[in-house]
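User: I'm curious what two different proteins look like when written out as structure tokens. Can you demonstrate?

Assistant: Sure. I'll show them one after the other, since each token string lines up with its own sequence. Here's the first protein:
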Amino acid sequence: QVQLVESGGGLVQAGGSLKLSCAASGRTFRWPPMGWFRQAPGKDRQFIGSVMRSIGVSVNLADSVRGRFTISRANANTLTLQMNSLKPDDTAVYYCSAQGEDGSWDYWGQGIQVTVSS
């Protein structure tokens, strides 16, 4: 089992920046792939990006955030999402997730609200 807890959300003006963090605990010694998703009101959950098993920066980002968002993983237990040039359309609940052994996104944090005002 892997437990995930997000932090760092809040309210920001358009054009501003926020940094989200995800703290993982449990079976993180296996370094499961981890990623970020978001869900806006009335919309489906959207994939933002993910980082595979090694330490590094984001290796897979959605087109809608590429060039503005960066995902990084400093170690097996910490995943960050740096969001720059935020837009009102980025307003959503943001979720941290980790894959299980079958490659599915099995583990989820509780989600954290990000609100971008115009």
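Here's a second, unrelated protein for contrast:
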Amino acid sequence: QLQFTESGGGLVQPGGSLRLSCAVSGGTVDHYGMGWFRQAPGKEREFVAGISGGGGVTRYASSVRGRFTISRDNAKNTVYLQMNSLKPEDTAIYYCAATSRSIWYNSYYDSWGQGTQVTVSS
């Protein structure tokens, strides 16, 4: 069973940057597509970004495309989310997730981390 350790969240001013990390254990990580989701207070969890097992295919929500970059280092069993030009509306708990199927369907992600808080505020 996969386990996730997310880190890198915190408080940042609008326009700032953060890099989230998700260290994965309990499996061969390059067998899994990985994704980041987020949930803001009072809202449903939403997809942010996904990356295929080999890293060659990525997918982004329109709200973050051009500002966020997902990447992975399979040798380190770690997935990253570089977040630039952050906005107050990016404030949420960010969750790392894995899928053994396609990264293109949100319902296919079936293993989840505990989340890390990102707050964008002046």
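A detail about the second structure: The mean pLDDT is 95.
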